[in-house]
Amino acid sequence: MVIEDHTVLKNKANVYLNELIYIKAEDHYLLLFTSKKKEFVRGKISEIIKELPPNFVQTHRSYIVNKNLITNISFQSVVLNGKIEIPLSRNFKKNI
Question: Where is the HTH LytTR-type domain (predicted)?
């Protein structure tokens, strides 16, 4: 659930959207990478993408990135601030 500048996760943790860099899905869990920490929560990528503002886009079946932090886009990947390389699939290229 998004409340103004943060989202409340299922484990009751607050994640501030201005600090959220990207989200990675692994099985039934989501790893949320922020500028300060990592959060690990049970959930689906299809559910959390609906709760996030439009500057968060899905680039791969397992990744959601903050569009504001993209520094470079190549054929198969997206590079975020800090040289973080995230895969980019053909199906989600139109989102960028």
Answer: 17-96
- Evaluate whether 45 touches 64 at the Cβ level (below 8 Å): yes
pLDDT, tens only, 65-76: 999 999 999 989
71 DSSP 8-state letter: E
The alpha carbon dihedral of 89, 50, 65, 34 has a sign of negative
The number of beta carbons lying within 10 Å of the beta carbon of residue 58 is 21
Which of the listed CATH numbers 2.40.50.1020, 2.60.40.10, 3.20.20.30, 3.40.50.1240 matches domain 2-95?
2.40.50.1020
